[in-house]
Amino acid sequence: MRTQLQIVAVALVISWLIPMAAWPTEDCQCEHRGPEAAGRSYAVNYRDLVLANCIARAYKTDTDASMDAGRSASALLEWTAFNMDDASRPMVDIIKSALVNDGTIDGSGKLTKDVRSSFSRCMDLYHGSGLAEQVRRYVGWPARTARDDARAQGPGP
Hints:
This protein is mainly alpha-helical. The chain has one domain (2-17, 36-100, 114-146): Four Helix Bundle (Hemerythrin (Met), subunit A), CATH 1.20.120.1620. The protein is built from 7 helices and 2 strands. The chain has helices at 2-17, 42-58, 63-77, 84-98, 118-127, 129-138, 146-153; strands spanning 104-105, 111-112. Strands 1-2 form a two-stranded antiparallel ribbon. Strand 1 (104-105) and strand 2 form a beta hairpin. Helix 1 (2-17) runs parallel beside helix 3 and helix 4 (84-98) runs antiparallel to helix 6.
């Protein structure tokens, strides 16, 4: 039951991060075709990439959830412009740091060692200042999108 809930939670987050519900049809007069990530800023895609990697690592014992999040992270690489050489190690380090299992404070304020809070730790990482600093440091054009760059180069996504 717990594994099913984890898969549902991961699926909900991934569906929020990478919406694909509105794929254009053949008769669509849309401005673009392709993944929504291509239209999100490089800063947002970098943050989403870190979150997807955090979820993949947090749920590595749940093969389906980990593979799903890992595939999403791999897809986001295509829509994110950042200094991969310099950012790779800090990205892994910040994820490992976020997932250190030092217990959870329950509602009564007591430290509970046996409660797993990996998902909330990944969300805290996503919204935290450490990740914001990584975006500032490694994403060269945080407000640009892959679609902006493709338009500048000619027809594309």
